[in-house]
Amino acid sequence: MSDLLVIHGVNLSLLGEREREIYGRSTLKEIDRKIREISEKLGMSVEIFQTNHEGAIIDRMIECSNKAKVIILNPGAFTHYSYAIRDCVSGVGVPTIEVHLSNIYSREPFRQSSVVAPVCLGQISGFGADSYILAVKMAKKIIDGR
Ligand code: DQA
Fold it and tell me: Per the structure, how many domains does the chain have?
């Protein structure tokens, strides 16, 4: 049982190779190492999961729904159209922080809306790999009752 469940969605396994000018040079492995380090420092256990499949995100959130205290979720492109992920976030009722490396509001019009954000506690977007670090710190506050 982990305090935190971090989910990286579609195409995030390509970080470090993919559009570096937008997403930076860090690989997902490096980002995950930072997430584990900061979580451990803050005394939280963490489970990290990457998938390119919408249904796998949903299955994992449901599996962890009565275990994880906070979910940190970067759905990748699913952000912009997955009503199924949105319904799952709202259905499982675990406080969820939506994360993006890039600032989705400064990009193409189709990226400027998130169908998931309205059912999340909040969103962190635009700080590269540090978006995840900020989310972990916020998760700690949420778990501690702020
Ligand atoms: C992203 C933004 C999405 O629009 C895009 O499809 C991604 C990554 C981000 O972290 O900036 O895959 O979620």
Answer: 1
